[in-house]
Amino acid sequence: MTAGYLARLAARSAATGTVLCLGIDPDPARLPAGFSRDLDGVERFAAGVLEAALPFAAAVKPNLAFFEAFGSAGVAALERLRAKVPADVPFVADAKRGDIGTTATRQAVALFDVLGADAVTVSPYLGEAAVAPLLGRGDRYAYVLCRTSNDGAGELQDLVVAEDTNAKMPAERLHERVARRVATWGPGDTVGLVVGATAPEELATIRAIAPALAFLVPGVGAQGGAVDPVLAHGPATAGAAAVGSGGGLLVNVSRGIADDGPEEASDDPFERVATRAREWARRLPVLR
Amino acid sequence: MTAGYLARLAARSAATGTVLCLGIDPDPARLPAGFSRDLDGVERFAAGVLEAALPFAAAVKPNLAFFEAFGSAGVAALERLRAKVPADVPFVADAKRGDIGTTATRQAVALFDVLGADAVTVSPYLGEAAVAPLLGRGDRYAYVLCRTSNDGAGELQDLVVAEDTNAKMPAERLHERVARRVATWGPGDTVGLVVGATAPEELATIRAIAPALAFLVPGVGAQGGAVDPVLAHGPATAGAAAVGSGGGLLVNVSRGIADDGPEEASDDPFERVATRAREWARRLPVLR
User: Is A166 on the interface with B (CB under 8 A)?
Assistant: First the structure.
């Protein structure tokens, strides 16, 4: 029997000593010199980033849009990239899916069975029923968008929703209600939350609301979110996610690893990638 | 210069006399006899449905998940299907996308430039900034999920949010607030709403809140939503969407056209599809 996703993630975090998630979002406009601004350049660069940074990563998370932007040929490149990720490294498909009944079932086939993702990201707006096929498998995992890292995330996510006396839920912001509801979703240990590092106070509040949900945290690195609050409140404090190394936490860095800074020592772009990945892994240690 | 999406949709609705949107959601488990339960069967059936029903449809809307479930080969089949849709028939990519800044830009490339969609569906949870690249083009369109047709849609969508005194928005349900906010999104005439026929009272309320937004309405047919309330409140009553034939309304039917009922007269599956499409077009006339 395959171990659950959280157990596989904990084993990989223990082996690497980090909660770093390697984001792979290859934008042709940001490729280093020597790579063509087309699918060939994107695929070569993504494969090189994966190879160089993999030793320092607890998990790998491509955002599907950067491959879908090249149509079916781009999706084929993503499939080849996925085949390069070893089985002991959790592969998170950042797809932000969710849809009505039969459609979500086909999304689960696309992401879990065909692409072979260990985990996916999903949107909460349609409710639990619309993502049930994506969080119903004991050996896979779904991260539900809760408080995202983008500018303007609060437009809906920070709206205050009324008390729910039946469910005994207080008046609170929408992202807090999402966390409280998602904690009741799924058969157990198959669902976590996406919580941006750009909102550290919200992250601490969400952790208090949902002590047992694993967090996938974007927003450090290029988006400027601070690391310390994430390491302090990111790990789960209850349930299966809290048991293993890392407390279920994954902190994503994409551009902070892929993009060159103003001063770079090596002439080899992938040596530079490896240097940055090693440094991010050091800054994102397993603390619990 | 290309006419705006709403003008192209109005021209097609005028030409066909209907607001029927042909949904193409080919599930291998529901193919008629004689079609293999694989990508080949799905592609052959989808192409046949398109050809048979196209004369009776104001627009065509594939849900991408049914193609993505076959990986890159499935996406290639979707690209071939798209190439069969004439330029005067709006092609709506039901993708429910939306993501942070640079990612949404790549989603726009994937859906508008590479797949060639005239319109897309997007999720509101990340706020306007996260879908701006998808609603920033004058000749394309984005339908934002507002009140969806699925069971359990109300779990978040019906939560009551507090009054916003700054923006002069009352205490109301989340889907109503989404409608009110989306009415302020985009440069003008590039954004509408997805509103399910399974919630007819909500649909009427949303129309009153957002008189100028075009509606894409799923949920009649297999999901059981009634047609009359949709025809009564579905068309826009103000702005550019209200000007042309159909009032910007699209009513989607997928399984109601593709799936056989208990008694079917013809031996030819696509003759049966054409019969059902003609009947749905008759039930969904242009009324304004």
Answer: no
